[in-house]
Design a protein that fits this description.
The protein is α/β, with parallel strands linked by helices. The chain has a single domain, classed as Ureohydrolase domain (Arginase, Chain A, 3-Layer(aba) Sandwich), CATH 3.40.800. Helices cover 32% and strands 18% of the residues. The chain has eight helices and ten strands. Strands 4-1-5-10-9-6-7-8 form an eight-stranded parallel beta sheet, with helices on both faces. The chain has a two-stranded antiparallel ribbon with strand order 2-3. Strand 9, helix 7 and strand 10 form a beta-alpha-beta unit. Helix 6 runs parallel beside helix 7. The longest helix is centred in the first third of the chain and has 17 residues. 54% of the residues are buried. Keywords: Hydrolase, Manganese, Metal-binding, Polyamine biosynthesis, Putrescine biosynthesis, Spermidine biosynthesis. Catalyzes the formation of putrescine from agmatine. This is Agmatinase. Its EC number is 3.5.3.11. Pathway: Amine and polyamine biosynthesis; putrescine biosynthesis via agmatine pathway; putrescine from agmatine: step 1/1.
Length: 290
């Protein structure tokens, strides 16, 4: 399974025709096999691509035009429906190939469990990595109703892989008592409710570090992103998330990959969620791909 083959479906706006000179690879992870509430995020990647057609090609946040970054939309990984472990193995293998060519992997989800195999692949190349996790949910469970493969577990798995002291979570406002206790006792960093302000305080501590960033769209309040599987009241605004992306872009951290997950278009007939997600994707491309 190759990431550099021509893709006949919809692609993100201004995608290069080939991957040859691309600095970044956009790829979809259409999986929602383990969600605990509402399915539908497997349709997120393609709808984000469709919404990108309405974007301006210039970003006033980054003062850059999309023609300044060479990226290739490789389409969706053809994941086997209903088979979590096989899907995760395929994602890890796919991203390993992207990293082997020193390209920036930008994944579109899909439920949040899809971040786990990507983090494993990035860790193999950058064992000194840190994780920036922006989300409404802690995702620190060891299992969900007896199942260790769950979209509520990827950050706990990452803590066990890279060490909790290298994990930085922002915007958290939901989780079990045990998850919040683990966060306090393990040595990881967790900022509750807000993102931009605590992030601005942490980024200087990550100066020079290789960092992977995972963003769950449900960090936004449902007023700004109702199209997600596990919406959580009390979230941040789209403006605040744009500011967070800008802060990371203008910091001294080395972002080595990123993903944007949990967009479930069926729950948002207004399409404001996919419109916002496509804009965040544009900002990530222009701000984080060096």
């Amino acid at each position: 399974m190759r990431f550099d083959e021509a893709y006949s479906g919809k692609v993100f706006i201004m995608s290069s025709p080939t991957a040859d000179n691309a600095k970044a690879i956009i790829y979809g992870m259409p999986m929602d096999w383990t969600v605990s509430f509402r399915p539908g995020s497997r349709f997120g990647p393609n709808r984000i691509r469709e919404a990108s057609l309405g974007l301006e090609e210039y970003s006033p946040y980054m003062d850059k035009h999309m023609e300044e970054v060479d990226y290739f939309d490789a389409g969706d990984i053809p994941l086997p429906f209903g088979n979590p472990q096989r899907s995760l193995d395929m994602i890890q293998d796919y991203v390993t190939k992207i990293l082997a060519q020193d390209k920036f992997p930008l994944g579109l989800g899909g439920e949040h469990l899809v971040s786990w195999p990507v983090i494993q692949a990035v860790y193999q190349k950058h064992p000194d990595m840190a994780l920036i996790h922006i989300d409404a949910h802690a995702d620190l469970r060891e299992e969900y109703e007896g199942e260790p493969l769950s979209h509520s577990t990827p950050v706990r798995k990452t803590c066990e892989l890279i060490g909790p002291e290298n994990v930085y979570s922002f915007g958290i406002r939901s989780g079990s008592r045990e998850e919040f206790q683990y966060a306090k006792q393990s040595g990881m960093h967790m900022s509750m409710y807000d993102v931009a302000e605590p992030l601005s305080q942490v980024l200087p501590k990550l100066k020079g570090r290789n960092v992977y960033v995972t963003i769950d769209i449900d960090v936004l309040d449902p007023a700004f992103a109702p199209g997600t599987g596990t919406a959580e009241a009390g979230g941040i605004t789209s403006k605040e998330l744009l500011k967070a992306i800008e802060l990371i872009a203008k910091s001294d951290v080395n972002v080595v990959g990123a993903d944007l997950v949990e967009v479930a278009p069926i729950y948002d007939p207004t399409e404001q969620t996919v419109i916002a997600a496509s804009k965040f994707t544009r900002e990530i491309l222009l701000g984080w791909v060096k």
